[in-house]
Amino acid sequence: MDKFVLRLDKAIDAINDADYVLIGAGAGFSAAAGIEYSGKRFEDNFADFIEKYGVTDMYSATFYPYETQEAKWAHWARHVYVNRYSVGKTKLYEQLLDLVKDKEYFVLTTNVDHQFWINGFEDERIFATQGDYGLMQCETACHDKLYSNRELVFEAIENTHDCMIPSDLVPVCPVCGGNMEINVRKDNYFVEDEKWREMHDNYSKFLEKIGTDDRLVLLELGVGFNTPVIIRYPFEQMTHNNPNVKLIRLNRSYAQAIPENKDKTISFDEEISEIFDYWTKRI
Ligand SMILES: [Zn+2]
């Protein structure tokens, strides 16, 4: 790989010269922004759940088979509070917005922590494909409406005892009376509501606007192999199919380009925050 500074300059030049910037952001980007799911942040916020259930990090804790709705919602309320409602703006997301705000940009993200909205990215330029921690749906998707969980989460946080919430706080589906779930894609019951379809349309329209002579930069941020079919593989394919596309890939563990795209990919396995600190000075 080229020297770090050389790659940093190459990448920022490509972004500054681009007609369009398509951002693809995955879990690694929010982790780099400080929303880490393991280590001290997890231990500080989930000590009682660690003791009771032996959970080892926030991500796997969301898959724990809690036996009652009271336990399940005590956990989800904590998780959603810690990662969605109590976070606020983050430096890294703000730096990213500074980098692209005067460009024709669009954000495709698998992150469900609402950070793009919280940090002021334009609503019509965001497609969060995998849901939102702030929304709830019917567990069996009996209808396609989504519901805010803000009130529930704050009340649950206040009223959690021994990793349980009171039964009268447990949400029920207003249509079928069944259980509710957080609106995060994990099975075939994931609800795609009107807003989701609107975001999907906005993304399609963004792609349609790009002409074959336009310079497009794909800025891939912290996208691993959890759900590569959403961002990583399509970005590789777009890079391969169009001579005017450049892929900038930031990933601590999997920064490498596929061989076919070697000359059109600029890879970084360095600290994401360090990269953005440098770029911010060069905008
Ligand atoms: Zn229902």
Structure explained in plain terms:
There is one protein chain. By secondary structure, this protein is of the alpha/beta class. The protein has a single domain (3-282), classed as TPP-binding domain (Rossmann fold). Helices cover 41% and strands 16% of the residues. It has 12 helices and 9 strands. The chain has helices at 4-17, 27-32, 39-45, 47-53, 58-61, 69-85, 91-100, 115-118, 150-158, 194-209, 232-241, 272-282, and strands spanning 20-25, 104-109, 126-128, 131-138, 147-148, 180-184, 216-221, 245-250, 265-268. Strands 3-2-1-7-8-9 form a 6-stranded parallel beta sheet, sandwiched between helices. A 3-stranded antiparallel beta sheet has the order 5-4-6, with helices on one face. Helix 11 (232-241) links the parallel strand 7 and strand 8. Helix 6 (69-85) packs across helix 9 and helix 7 (91-100) packs across helix 12 (272-282). It starts with a helix and ends with a helix. Bound molecules: zinc ion. Residues 138, 140, 142, 173, 175-176, 178 line the site of zinc ion. The site of zinc ion has 7 residues, from loops. This is NAD-dependent protein deacetylase, SIR2 family. It comes from Methanobrevibacter millerae. Residues 1-283 form the Deacetylase sirtuin-type domain.
